[in-house]
Amino acid sequence: MRKLLLAGIAVAMMATPAFAANYRFVIVPKAMNNPFFDFARDGCQKRAKELGNIECIYKGPVEHEPATQAQIIQDFITQKVDGLAISVADVAAMTKSIEAATAAGIPVITFDADAPGSKRIAYIGTNNKEFGVALGKQLLKLRPDGGKYAMVSGGPGAKNLAERVDGVREALKGSKWTEVGGSPTFCNDDPALAVQQMTDLRTATPDLAAIVPVGGWPMFAPEGFKAFASRYKKDIDAGKFTLVVADTLKMQLELLRDGYANALVGQRPFEMGEKAMDTLLAIKKGEKVPEIVYTGLDLVTKDNVAQMLK
């Protein structure tokens, strides 16, 4: 009888969670073929493991496809996950998706790219206007003499990228820099296309003095970027052609170290992933969370790139 009683208690204990809740939180990138988001995934998974009662699910479109992102989120709403952290590919489409998730009782935050007019509870990531300003200021510091410049952007519907473009323009306003027609180009987060667009920009304007990609896309195809920069290496070394690029992933730091770019301004995607888990958990516990959490920037030139690579 005692053995049966103990067995019954054991079964009951197995049926009861060891902690108050077991949450499934989802981090949805703009595109899974963008290595930038791999770091957000890694931060998310690390923090979920540390917290112990959270599963971090990472899923988004393979390529930059706002409609596919919206469908993926709808699938997670149907699955009744416990929280969503979304990098918004298209503000209009995602505002509707966030509203649907909220109506289903699923808390939503954004990371990397925001939808401030939506029902999202919080945003975690870069101050994108300041990011653009930092890119522009870095170019101005390197080349106060000015010249013609162009920008490469990602998706035309991404508010965070539009803010970066505005920031670059703001930093260069009143300087000797002038933006060429057709700038920015939109690569839709496609690394190969970003490299091709850089080539096209330089071909269309042979005296182009600088290109500023507001995301790291062209460098995410390192061999293609190296091939492009190699054609203009003498001008880069002589200070006649300047490349100031967003983000600081390892392959980018290596390209800067090897002289294929002049400066990088980086974000902190790993921290975005970590803080996304902390924020969603706090929301589920009924705690008040900050609406905006900025994760900061890193400025990298040839002077500190070796330290950043350690």
UniProtKB/TrEMBL annotation:
Gene Ontology CC terms: outer membrane-bounded periplasmic space
Principal location listed in the UniProt entry: periplasm
CDD domains assigned to the protein according to its UniProt record, in alphabetical order: PBP1_tmGBP (cd06314)
Pfam family, one: Peripla_BP_4
Compartmental location: Periplasm
Signal peptide: 1-20
One Gene Ontology term of the molecular function aspect: carbohydrate binding
Domain Periplasmic binding protein: start-end pairs: 25-288
Similarity comment: family membership: Belongs to the bacterial solute-binding protein 2 family.
Annotated protein name in UniProt: Sugar ABC transporter substrate-binding protein
Record organism: Bradyrhizobium neotropicale
